[in-house]
Amino acid sequence: MAQLKVTLIHSVAHRLPKQRKIVAALGLNRVNSTVLQPDNEATRGALFQIAHLIKVEEVK
């Protein structure tokens, strides 16, 4: 199964509380922090809601 490399590129300061919770739930703490997440529907849905804050790359 493929994984997604998610990097936070914009700060979550002054963002909606829902967006802050999604970023925290993904395990992203600071700008330029990176995590690997499984490529599934739940993860894709969360990433879609914060797409303007992150950069996503597919890792095989």
Automatic annotation (TrEMBL):
One Gene Ontology term, aspect cellular component: ribosome
Domain Large ribosomal subunit protein uL30-like ferredoxin-like fold: 4-54
Pfam families named in the record: Ribosomal_L30
Ribosomal protein recorded as keyword: yes
Family label: Belongs to the universal ribosomal protein uL30 family.
Keywords carried by this UniProt record: Ribonucleoprotein, Ribosomal protein
UniProt protein name: Large ribosomal subunit protein uL30
Keyword rRNA-binding tagged: no
Organism per entry: Levilactobacillus fuyuanensis
Top-rank taxon, per record: Bacteria
